[in-house]
Amino acid sequence: KLVTGSDDKTLRIWERKMGVVEVLHGHTDTVQDVDVSRNGKMIVSGSHDRTIRIWNAESGETLHVFEGHKDWVASVQFSPDSSKVVSGSLDKTVRVWSIETGELAFEPINVQIWNAETGNEILSIRNSSVNSVAWTADGTHIIGGRSDGVTIWDSHNGEQLRTWKADNRWNSNVALSPTRTHVVTCKVGDKTAFVFDISTGERVATFKHDATVCGIAYSPSGHFIATGCNDGKLCLW
Question: Gene3D superfamilies per the record (predicted)?
Fold first, then answer.
């Protein structure tokens, strides 16, 4: 099965041979992002209506509606154990939600860092929309692609562990290596994927494509990176 979201405000569940088998209604604006839990029992969707919805994948019933973002929800993803959902928004926050309680696991991640000697601002997550979010394979960290860089947080308490600046084009996708030593990113409308060393923030590899890169993922071993493009091709690096 495949799940898609659309600017017609719906989600659609597809079967390979049958096409659309179910249409889910509930959002009042464009459905920007969707994800399916690892056990296949739940679907999460994020929308321009500023809400996150959890759906029963079998019945199509809405299980939870999470409210709190002040702008479009740009990215959503289940934790590896399917107990939480992380959401990134154009309101410049990352939020982690407990599926069991329907409440925030901790306060929204919204960080500013200042130089203690000069008083100058060094980094402000408040001034940068969060366009893509992802969990590490073991569920211990969250990585977020912002409009000007990449940040990694501790998923248990929201502590910011590492951040670095990139160019001004939005990061549309991010993926962290299983060893948590490297991150791969791609940007909106770009035909290139980049690999960064987390400890230094240095770019260590560049993968060029013939078409726009739409998706990226690490292999479980961390030895390979898969990229998918809008020309229908999948590349393994």
Answer: YVTN repeat-like/Quinoprotein amine dehydrogenase
